[in-house]
Amino acid sequence: QVKNNGKNHHLFYDASLSRDAVEHFQMETELRQALSRQQLRVFYQAQIDLNTGLIVGAEALIRWQHPTQGLIPPGKFIPLAEETGLILSIGEWALTQAVSQANEWHHLHPEFKKIAINVSGVQIMKSQFADTVYGVLVDSNCDPSIVELEITESTLMQHTQHVVNTFNQLKQLGVSIAIDDFGTGYSSLSHLKRLPLDQIKIDRSFVKDLPDDKDDAAITSAIYAMATQLGFTVVAEGVETEEQEKFLQRLGCQTAQGYLYAYPVSADAFLQLLELNNQRKIKRHA
Ligand code: C2E
Ligand code: MG
Ligand code: MG
Ligand code: MG
Question: How are beta strands 55-66 and 147-152 bridged, if at all?
Fold first, then answer.
């Protein structure tokens, strides 16, 4: 890679950048093969009803089981998947996995009634995204009302009209839509009102220092009040402590997700959590 050092306008060859470029290219080649080599995994993180303490749903979170590098988190390969367009096939695969898995869990454990699946802006921008979702729902014979698609607030701010049209089509299919990482972007209330949204997920960065940080406490309370008054349900992300949980319960927040309850786990491990969930329910009602 060629770099201009600015001052005397000499161009020089930067070996470290070149190594990065090679690694980048190698990762791209490997990511292209990851799907067919069955190296991608969908993990599931429990979503908890704060009134009952029971698991009521899950968020699907993708990982890459790399042959030499181990389990790679999505933050390390989703951006590359988006740049290369690979997110279209990877995203559709994750959607298919999560929907068919959730359909099975919902039938085994009716209290499990929501699967949240992250969707990239690149997928939304593809003209026929709603058709893809429709196809996945039909193939797995899944009740659309258990499916929730998560789109980050920053994605919403980028592409307006096409997003509105696609969301309307998705709503007609009967799936629900959540705004992920809410509070980290700068979307206006008028903008939100134009979209057929169901849920707001309060970003972990606001939850992290609750309840002591007065600013974060104020922001969380304000987001909660605004969201409920606009008719959205609210999920708090990244709940790690009982103090955070208590603050959210006092606020009236219905649903939470975080390491306090469960880490993202494999499908097999999640089914075990659901079975424990049932035993807990039996005990509580006894
Ligand atoms: P996200 O959708 O906001 O997911 C929440 C992230 O916070 C997950 O990280 C989760 O493991 C982590 N988390 C959950 N509870 C806690 C907690 O109590 N404390 C802390 N410190 N972290 C917590 P993960 O799995 O690394 O995913 C990162 C991001 O990658 C996700 O953020 C999402 O934007 C993206 N992603 C994951 N799967 C997919 C996918 O299938 N498609 C697309 N497009 N993006 C995905
Ligand atoms: Mg999410
Ligand atoms: Mg989030
Ligand atoms: Mg995030």
Answer: unpaired
The residues facing 40 across adjacent strands are: 64
Helix axes of 129-140 and 87-108: crossing angle, nearest 10 degrees: 40
Residue 240 has, within 13 A of its CA and on its CB side, a CA count of: 9
Instruction: Tell me the C-alpha distance between 192 and 163, whole Å.
Output: 12
CB-count exposure of residue 199 (10 Å: 0-12, 13-18, 19+): buried
Please state, in angstroms and rounded to a whole number, the distance separating the CA atoms of residues 80 and 77.
5
* Ligand in nearest proximity to the CA of 73: 1
Amino acid in the structure at residue 111: E
Asked if pLDDT for residue 7 goes beyond 60, the answer is: no
82-139 tens-digit pLDDT: 999 999 999 999 999 999 999 999 999 999 999 999 999 999 988 799 999 999 999 9
3-state secondary structure 54-76: CEEEEEEEEEEEECCCEEECHHH
Environment of ion ligand 4 (residues, CB < 5 A): 181
211: tokens are 């309840």
**pTM for the full model?**
0.92
ipTM metric? 0.97
**Ligand 3: centre distance to CA 30 (Å):** 27
E strands, the chain, are 2-4, 11-13, 40-49, 55-66, 70-72, 114-118, 147-152, 176-182, 199-202, 233-236, 255-256
Ligand 1 proximity of 179 Cβ (cutoff 6 Å) = no
For the chain, state the CA radius of gyration. Answer: 21
Distance from residue 192's CA to the centre of ligand 3 (Å) = 17
Amino acid 20: pLDDT? 80
Evaluated on CA atoms 226, 229, 231, 234, the torsion sign reads positive
